[in-house]
Write the C-alpha cells for this entry.
Amino acid sequence: MRRRGFHMRMMYRVLAVLSAAAVIVQPQAGMAAGKEPIVLRPSLQWHLDMGEDRCRLARRFGPEGEHTVFYFEQWEPSNRADFVVAGPPVERFKPERDASFAFTPGGNTADFQFPAATLDTYGQVVAGWTTIVPDPNPVEPGSEREPTDYALNPRGLPALETNGTKGITRLELKQRGRRDVVLELGSLENAVLALNMCMTNLVEHWGFDPEEQKAVVLPPRITNLQDVAREIQESYPKKAERKGAQADFHMRLTVDAEGKAEDCKLVNQTLAADFDLQRHPCTVMQDHAIIEPARLADGAAVRSYLTKRLVFRLYP
C-alpha cells in the first residue's frame, strides 16, 4: 500500500517545495546539441484578472495555431509569485527533472523541478515561483527557508519588488537535452506594479483595510499545527487513494482579534478528479485549530488573514 503524504505550512516557506517542487543540486547545461533556442514574441497585450481568491497577469505568445500562454499568479500578498508557461514549445520538457529558469537581464534565476500538469488546450505546463528580481534571501539547494523573524521583518502587506524590473524583459527556460525556450516578455515594471495593485485591491475585497494590514507585525499563527495537519491527513479520499490521485489546495482563513477562524476558503488548485475530501479541511481548522491572532507593534490584536497550502501526495 502506498504511503499517504500531507504537508501544510505557511505559504512563504513552501512555494519552493510545493509550487515549483523545488530545489535542485545540479547546474543546467546550455541549449540542446547546438540547436538555436525557441524564441517566442507576444501576440496579445497583458491581461490582468482579479478573481475571488487570486490575481493573475497573463499574456499569449507565438503564432496562430501554436499559441503559448504565460502568467504570473499570486494567492496572497507576497514578494514572490507563481509563474506558468504552457504550450507546444515546452511540451518536451520533462516534469520532476532538473530544469532552470532566468528572468533576464539581471533578474531572478534558479534551478527547479516542476510537477506533471496540463492547462486547457495549451497542453504541457512548466511552473515555478519567482521573485522576478534577484531573490534577497536565496535558499541553498537541499535546505528550507528559515522562519521569518517578525521582530526584524514585520509582516505588513508584502508585495513584489518593483526596483530593477524595468530592465527585465525575458524569461529563459532550460532543461538538459531540450531546446531552450525564450519568452520576450517586454519590460516587467508595469506588470509588477499591476500585480501589486491587484493584490492590495484583493485584500480589501476580502474585507480588510489594507492600511491596517500594512501595520501588522505578527501574522496569525496556529499553535497546534501538527495536530491539525494529522486530522486533515485522515480525510484523504479513499477513491483518490485507490486511483493514485493527488492534489494541491490553497486555504485562506479570516482570523478575528480573538483568534477565532470566522471564515475559511478552500480552493483546489489542481482540479484533481476523485478528490472529494471525506472531511472538509476548513471544518477541521475551525473545530481544532488554536490560533494566535495577528498583532500590531504595540501588541494589540487585530483581524487579519492566514493562508496555507495543503498538499496531498502518495508515496511508494
Q: What stands out?
A: The chain is about 15% helix and 35% strand. The longest strand covers residues 304-315.
